[in-house]
Specification:
alpha/beta; Isopropylmalate Dehydrogenase; 2 domains; 14 helices; 18% strand; binds 3-isopropylmalic acid; binds magnesium ion
């Protein structure tokens, strides 16, 4: 298969982690005889520095013409600490989502057996957790009308949803549940918000088309609590934009590190793949950022194009690296630090030698391999 992939590695640790997933995708292309063409463009703070615009036209054009987008991270503390900044890196990402119509953000959350003791949550609570969060990504309070009064003392953000916006992602979430454990939980705040009541009504109506799916409802405050009390109760979670943003960060604690969570942002014409973590500016250039979220995002990219075997090989390589503790310091207390690129090299090596790389594992683990 030939794929044109736009690479928007962005700010902070974005470039470091994205470099690892490109390495991994190149190894996949070699093993499975695919042609992946990578073209890079700037986005976020780096794009503001270069062009004054967090999403330059050239970047947008590249994304529009690509088959898929591999995204790194955006954000810079100089904007976070300046509430009056008119141009912000995040605007680049939000505009990209909106213009490309990437309405469904899918965030898988899994408790890896080998990492159960890395989570601050107790092993017996997180064991067996396997959740797929379907977060609506182009509507709601993120994109509603924003106002600031002239005297600067009153502000508002409108949360608006239409039936159409709810239906299209709800169908995807129901269909995903059909391939999984057949349970769908709608997370909302229908006891307070009119927009949430619309979500409930529309999703309840659609449920009759999916009689095999058990549909449940949870208020978002309760869902936040359930996520850490009993996360394995969830299968597919469907929710609006901001609730999904918040509970997916919360859910990342289950895996032991936010550096593990990948995501796919899907629309009818375009698809983008990105780790859920941010630009982690404190870690930039130190080689300590976990590349696995980006690498698993690359696996989701392959999955999106039906390359299941290829995606599975990446998943296996990641599991092996976790098992052997070839992991960055967020998951590894060893005094000898394993760097971002070493993790990437290990996963690349596994893909290049899926059958015979076992012999290298011990050496790699001890940092003595000639391969890395
Ligand atoms: C995410 C991020 C973004 C969001 C930010 C960077 C705008 O937190 O992808 O979860 O809020 O959607
Ligand atoms: Mg977020």
């Amino acid at each position: 298969m030939k794929l044109n992939i736009a690479v928007l590695s962005g700010d902070g640790i974005g470039p470091e982690v994205t470099a690892q997933s490109i390495k991994v995708l190149k190894a996949i292309a070699l093993q499975f005889n695919h042609t992946f063409v990578f073209k890079e463009a700037v986005v976020g703070a780096i794009a503001i520095d270069k062009t004054g615009n967090p999403l330059p036209d050239k970047t947008l054009e590249l994304c529009k013409s690509a088959d898929a987008i591999l995204f790194g991270a955006i954000g810079d503390p100089k904007y976070d600490n300046d509430p009056s900044a008119k141009v912000r890196p995040e605007q680049g990402l939000l505009k990209l989502r909106k213009v490309l119509g990437l309405y469904a953000n899918i965030r898988p959350v899994k408790a890896y057996e080998t990492l159960l003791d890395k989570s601050p949550l107790k092993r017996h609570i997180i064991e067996g957790t396997d959740i797929s969060i379907y977060r609506e990504l182009t509507g709601g309070i993120y994109f509603g009308e924003k106002q600031l009064s002239e005297d600067g003392n009153t502000a508002s953000d409108l949360c608006e949803y239409s039936r159409f916006e709810i239906e299209r992602i709800a169908h995807l979430a129901f269909k995903a549940a059909q391939t999984r454990r057949k349970k769908l939980t709608l997370v909302d705040k229908a006891n307070v918000l009119e927009s949430s009541r619309l979500w409930r009504r529309v999703v309840t109506e659609l449920a009759s088309e999916y009689p095999d799916i058990r549909l449940e409802f949870l208020f978002v405050d309760n869902a936040a609590m359930q996520m850490i009390l009993n996360p394995s109760q969830f299968d597919v979670i469907l929710t609006e934009n901001m609730f999904g943003d918040i509970i997916s960060d919360e859910a990342s604690v289950i895996g032991g590190s936010i550096g593990l969570l990948a995501s796919a942002s899907i629309g009818d014409e375009h698809a983008m793949f990105e780790p859920i973590h941010g630009s982690y500016p404190q870690a930039t250039g130190k080689g300590i950022a976990n590349p696995i979220a980006s690498i698993l995002s690359a696996a989701l990219l392959l999955e999106h194009f039906g390359l299941h075997e290829e995606a599975k090989l990446i998943d296996q390589a990641v599991e092996k690296s976790l098992k052997l503790q070839i992991t960055t310091p967020d998951l590894n207390d060893a005094t000898e630090k394993i760097s971002t690129s070493k993790v990437g090299n290990f996963i690349e090596d596994f893909i290049n030698n899926p059958t015979d790389s076992n012999k290298n594992f011990v050496n790699i683990h001890l940092g003595q391999s000639t391969i890395i």
